[in-house]
Amino acid sequence: MIKKILLASTLALAATASAQAACDINSGRVSIVGNEFPAIQTIGKGAMACAGAGVEVKTNLTADHQKINVAGMTGNPAEYTSAIVANSSIVALMNNDLIRPLDDLVAKFGAGLKKNQLITVNGKIMAVAFMANAQHLVYRKDVLEKAGVGVPKTYEDMLAAAKTIRDKGILQNPVGGAYKAGWNIAQEFNNMYIGYGGEFFKAGTAEVSINNEKGVAALKMMKDLSAYMNPDYLTHDSNATSAEWKAGNVAIMNMWGSRVGPLRETEGSSQVVVDNTAIDAPMTVGGGKTPATTLWWDGWTVSKNISDEDAEATFKALKAAIDPSILNDETKPQAVWLIDGYQPTAAAVGVFAAASMGTRPYPMRPFQGLLHSALGAELADYMQGKESAEKTLADVEAAYTAAAKEKGFLK
Amino acid sequence: MKHRTFFWFFLPTALAMLLFIAMPIVSVITQSLHTAHDQVFIEVENCGPFGCEKEVSVDTEATEKIRREQPLGKWAGLTIYLDRGHLATAEVAEAWRTSADIGSFLSTINNLPFYRAMSFTLTYTFVVTPLLIILGFMIAVAVNALNQKLKGLVIFFSLLPMIVTPLIGSLILFWMIDARGVIGSGLQWLAGDPDLSLKASTGLTWIMLMVYGIWHSAPFAFVVFYAGLQTLPQDTLESAMIDGASRWQRIRYVVIPHILPLVTFVALIQLMDNFRVFEPIVGFNAEAHATSLSWIIYNDLGGETRLLSSAATSSVLTIIGVAILLSPVLVRTWRDFNRKT
Predict the structure, then answer these.
(1) Looking at the predicted structure, is the pLDDT value of residue A365 above 80?
(2) Is the pTM for the entire model greater than 0.80?
(3) Residue B143 confidence (pLDDT)
(4) Looking at CB atoms within 10 Å, which of A91, A215, B8, B305 has the fewest?
(5) Which fold has domain A16-133+296-352?
(6) Residue environment code for A308-342, b if the CB has 16+ CB neighbours within 10 A, otherwise e
(7) Is B57 on the interface with A (CB under 8 A)?
């Protein structure tokens, strides 16, 4: 027993020693705030391994990261030396001028980073991406086979499949979806609206324009789908939808690639569900060619309001955390890594298909977040049948316009 | 007390009140009268793993320069108060002009965020407050009549709803009323309707939130009333009994008049608390059906782009709302005070 403990601690020591060697940090403070899912936890752990004499590393990974990152990076010196962000959430940090350009740090310490990992804005590197993500189709092989329907390629197929599954009495509510009022349902609208070929704003301006036939079609499709969902769908976020999937109540859904891994674990699920969980390309809608989904990257930034010493330590710790050596059997299926040497696993099929089908990335616009909030607050009225699609879209536009005027995006 | 003694006695409290109550209110009011500066846009090229795209971006240097000249932001006066997210004066006037009847006017108004939040908040406040007072009183009278040995145990259990953190309490109930939860499927069985969902219907969600509110706050009323019952003059009670008053008559003519000042106190505290209803809305994921001013503030601060002026304005409106709500009770207390002195 004692031998084992000794062996384990020696191994652990050796591991930290080698990690520190890879980090090559002498001093500084690293404090990371970010979202919470398995791939980001891997990054957090990787950075934590750099802690040592004179080097302090802290992480705060939480689903509420967007509520705290701006406030936590505004002070000088900032509480967080780095925020892990995505293409939507980096905008708030840039709008407030809270992150520093990384060109000099990349030049000095960025050997091995691939060009497509570097997020540049106006020629300056603002973030280093480590994974790609997209929502795509997840389906139950056994249920579709039993119902005698093929794998849906379009949302129209999905509706037809849902009808067949319900009519044959296999499942009462076969469609899943993160339709929770707020951020989630707004994202589903974004997907659908893009699928119908819609543009959110008048070109080159902050003037919203979604109250058109594409917006109406997108809403109608969402409502048609909701008829095949658990009646509580307006309270279901990605977590609750995943739980419904694991409970075997759902057979087809549009779900984040980064959440497929946990769906294939038996905890809280059954072997039948786990064995038959399959993924495929994102669906199109209304005869469009662009898939009704968006592409996302997740990456890390470095705060502006910190000393150069801390910035260097932060950069090095996070660079070590996305070193190709972190890829192993456990971490590989967690995400579609953009790290050198990553070979796509079975869990990556959906995201790769999304990228190859010409899916549009979620727009990095300064005012897209305001529209997202307005959609999240207003769409529930239409979904509950309280008002027409046109009225709801007009409400969204009015809510957005009021907010955009307050923030100075519109005069 | 001499004025001088009173001054030194009161000074620390006054300072603390100035620092922690008055100054934040002044700061919130200032914020609500200013908005962000007009943003300076530049066209940039964003590149990443999925290629490059032309996009507008905020010119941070130019914006920073404007911000340094006027750190408070752009003077906005009352524009935020009057915009669609708050009092929505233009929209209300428009609805008044175009609506055929009062019903359609009200439904248009109810579609605006502020009025929607107010309609739930006021209904909640005026349903929950009286009911929790009645329930709290009933529990207090019942517990008071119990055998001495049982009392301690019963008091402990009666207080539990208040001890449980509101967010946790509402989350536990949220899962119980789920279509697959204990209460949810029980109700489906009772109603004989397998599609019955408490969370999908606005009416049922409101009822659920109010039941939760009563459940959570009744112990507070109970504790206060129970304490009041301990000071009940036994002589009056005994003489009432000798006069042949029934139990109900004793409660009606002796107990209730005795604890009436406490009812005012509980009503005051609970009106204020219920007007700020927030945790149950988050805990029950009920924002699709019910919102409140506090929830609007939370939502403004939690979005990807924080709306600081909007949140400040909602805060000021909340303070005004609480003041209006409490004014009848405060006026009454003041009159009572004057009568006594």
Answers:
(1) yes
(2) yes
(3) 93
(4) B8
(5) D-Maltodextrin-Binding Protein; domain 2 (3.40.190)
(6) eebbbbbbbbbbbbbbeebbeeebbbbbbbbbeeb
(7) yes
